[in-house]
Amino acid sequence: MNILHITPNSVAEELDIKAGDKLIGFDGKDKVDFIDYQYYSSQEEFVMSIQQDGDIVDFEIVKSVEEDLGLEFEDNIAIKQCRNKCAFCFIDQNPPNVRKSLHIKDDDYRMSVVSGNFITLTNLKEEDYTRIISYGLSPLYVSVHSTDTATRQKLLGNLKAKPVLPILEMLHAHGIVIHAQIVYCPTINEDYVKSIKELSPFVKSTAIVPLGLTKYSKNGLVPVTKDMSIKVVQDIEELQKQGYKAYCGDEFYFKAELELPDYESYDDFEQISNGVGIVRQFDREFDEQLAEVDKLKGKYTIITGTLATDLMKGIASKCNAKGATVQVITAKSLFFGGDVSCAGLVTGGDIISACQGIDLSTQDKVIIPKTMLKEFEDIFLDDMLLSQVEQAIGHAITVSAVDGVALLEHMM
Asked: CA 119, CA 125: separation in Å to the nearest integer?
């Protein structure tokens, strides 16, 4: 791993390791990635091999658990690709000619640990399981969809996918915490109640979320309707009464036109990255911060997707009661179409269309969530630049982190 930067006053600086050197391995192992680095950074004694000017130097490290080694690396990690052909795969429903990075199908257990990405476990080898167990890589987020092997193979488009329950049982027995996901595909995995019950001994939680279909979907899948959503919510709430740690994605409640569960129902919000409880958490963060504010002033526009419109209108109403003037603009997903409704899939073109005919010149700020933009770059999914959208709508755009505190701070 090529070293890009050394943190000042770190272990690496004390050892005179420099940017441009290369991390070769730990404890004699000549294969290394960011997981190895993360693991050994939390250890107290080990040997770290560094290539300097063509020579390999072995450093005997003795440090406290809290001390960071202080190495930063070039971002050139090879991500393990997905081998499945899931019928509901959103990436396969992308519009034509989108940028190459939007076609990457990640199924990498390392990213599951680091970023909470869901994986299928279908591309793991024995050495991968050994590594997961020996390093205690946990929690893992696993896309199960069904515990019935034939149904799961059909959904994954992979007839070689092994039975998932024995794998989860093995990982659980070695202390690996697992959060499971079921993407509900009407008429296919109607066995979700059975699956949740069978998963229960081996996973800490299971979330069920509806499949998403764009206008480019060609797989013949059935969209999730209001009546289907009502049934799923009822089934999951019944399982919760029986003591199962099962949750519905917020989208099911919106589709069903039902009130979301209260804040406490989401326990530790362990599936929030899966859209479970995000509305209640956002609302709680906002309300707690707003309670400390006597008065607001100014004019603000919040742009969001269809799914979060009611939440944002509620936020706007609370702000208006404190003296501000807040309006909400709903940007429909014209780029993806279908039943796509989340803010994170709103594009620059969608925003421009939504703002047509609206005079924003009197607004102090126009606010969007940062999930609309590529990470670390001001570019939307349709490759429009933030500056281009600002020019088109005639107003600068403020990008907010997706939490209630951050949003309120932009209006203070």
From this structure: 14
DSSP string for residues in 149-216 = HHHHHHHHT-TTPPPHHHHHHHHHHTT--EEEEEEE-TTT-TTHHHHHHHHTTT-SEEEEEE----TT
Which class does domain 3-73 fall in?
Answer: mainly beta
| pLDDT average, residue stretch 116-133 | 94
Give the pLDDT confidence score for residue 66 in this predicted structure.
87
Name the pairing type of β-strands 299-304 and 325-330. Answer: parallel
Options 3.80.30.10, 3.20.20.360, 2.10.109.10, 3.40.50.720; CATH for 91-276 is 3.80.30.10
- Residue 77: count other Cβ atoms within 10 Å of its Cβ: 13
Q: How far apart are alpha carbons 384 and 388 in whole angstroms?
A: 6
* CATH 3.40.50 for the 282-409 domain, yes or no: yes
Does this model's pTM top 0.85? yes
Q: What is the dihedral of CA 316, 322, 323, 327, to 10 degrees?
A: 0
Say yes or no to pLDDT of 33 above 90.
no
